[in-house]
């Protein structure tokens, strides 16, 4: 079975690199028109070039800081002008930030919540009415496995991601009568830009060796790929998953102790 997103429009935050870029490419390959939101214009231009290699639909990129409500609203208006509608929202923006609880300042807490929770709230709230009106919509919240099983010194990320899981369930209940399906995907160890940066800082061995060592902590014995994650997101966005809502799916090679 092939997921067909022909005629659909997807908007993806944090879409210029890593998981977000893979999701954009996969959905575009499946026929969707894709809007990619990210802050860096150069990265967006590179993302457009990458996605165009696979594209069956149109591509639009928007430079936007999703932590700023006015910028997010302007980005929404720009995408609506370009495509006329939005059917699929992928709330993917965010990076891992963790530390001992007492070391985390109010500013760090607020910045993390703005990026990982409020951005999802605001974008979904902007798109929601048109999904309800058309009786078709998909919202995918990209979280992490720490949302289900937080470890010591995993705040603020595990806390903001847990709030995202609660948001997912609330929206799924409200959207179900209107065929607006809302699900969460939980990232485990996936090869993405944040690990490239971490390897560069470590200055130890090759990147392949770095991933191989990290993969020893995964029951499947390896780190996942962004494309594998994107395949699951594309499935949830398609009509193949038309009876799946309110779920919280680990994409982690069984790394999470919680289902």
Explain what you see.
The chain has 259 residues and is an alpha/beta fold. It has two domains: 9-190 and 226-250, 3-Layer(aba) Sandwich (Rossmann fold); 191-224, no CATH class. The chain contains eight helices and seven strands, in the order βαβαβαβαβαβαααβ. It has helices at 18-29, 41-52, 69-83, 106-134, 157-175, 193-202, 207-215, 226-237, and strands at residues 9-13, 33-38, 59-63, 88-91, 137-144, 180-187, 248-251. A seven-stranded parallel β-sheet has the order 3-2-1-4-5-6-7, sandwiched between helices. The chain is globular. It starts with 8 loop residues before the first strand and ends in an 8-residue tail after the last strand.
Summarize the SSE layout with pairings.
Elements: E1 9-13, H1 18-29, E2 33-38, H2 41-52, E3 59-63, H3 69-83, E4 88-91, H4 106-134, E5 137-144, H5 157-175, E6 180-187, H6 193-202, H7 207-215, H8 226-237, E7 248-251
Helix pairs in contact: 1-2, 1-8, 3-4, 4-5
Main features:
single chain; 259 residues; alpha/beta; Rossmann fold; 2 domains; seven-stranded parallel β-sheet; 8 helices; 15% strand; globular
CATH class of the largest domain: Alpha Beta
Shape: globular
- Largest beta sheet: strand ordering: 3-2-1-4-5-6-7
User: Any idea what the radius of gyration is?
Assistant: 17 Å
CATH architecture of the largest domain: 3-Layer(aba) Sandwich
CATH H-level homologous superfamily name of the largest domain? NAD(P)-binding Rossmann-like Domain
Oligomer: single chain
In angstroms, what separates the terminal alpha carbons?
26 Å
Total tally of structural domains: 2
Query: In what range is the share of β-strand residues?
Result: 15-25%
The poorly predicted ranges are none
Kindly name the structural category: alpha/beta
Q: So how many helices?
A: 8
Query: What sequence of helices (H) and strands (E) makes up the elements?
Result: EHEHEHEHEHEHHHE
Number of strands: 7
**Average predicted confidence as pLDDT:** 96
């Amino acid at each position: 079975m092939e997921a067909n997103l022909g005629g659909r429009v997807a908007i993806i935050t944090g879409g210029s690199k890593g998981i977000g870029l893979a999701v954009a490419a996969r959905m575009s390959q499946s026929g969707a028109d894709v809007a990619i939101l990210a802050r860096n214009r150069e990265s967006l231009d590179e993302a457009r070039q990458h996605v165009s290699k696979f594209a069956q639909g149109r591509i639009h990129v928007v430079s936007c800081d999703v932590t700023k409500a006015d910028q997010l609203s302007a980005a929404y208006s720009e995408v609506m002008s370009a495509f006329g509608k939005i059917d699929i929202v992928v709330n993917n923006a965010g990076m891992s930030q963790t530390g001992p609880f007492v070391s985390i300042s109010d500013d760090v807490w607020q910045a993390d919540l703005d990026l990982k929770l409020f951005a999802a709230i605001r974008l979904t709230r902007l798109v929601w009415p048109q999904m309800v009106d058309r009786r078709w919509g998909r919202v995918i919240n990209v979280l992490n496995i720490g949302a289900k099983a937080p470890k010591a010194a995993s705040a603020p990320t595990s806390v903001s991601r847990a709030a995202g899981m609660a948001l997912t369930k609330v929206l799924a209940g409200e959207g179900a009568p209107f065929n607006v399906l809302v699900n969460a995907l939980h990232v485990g160890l996936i090869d993405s830009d944040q690990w490239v940066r971490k390897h560069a800082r470590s200055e130890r061995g090759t990147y392949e060796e770095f991933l191989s060592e990290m993969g020893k902590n995964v029951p499947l014995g390896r780190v996942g790929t962004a494309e594998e994650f994107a395949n699951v997101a594309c499935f949830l966005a398609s009509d193949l998953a038309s009876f799946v809502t309110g779920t919280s799916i680990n994409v982690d090679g069984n790394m999470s102790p919680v289902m």
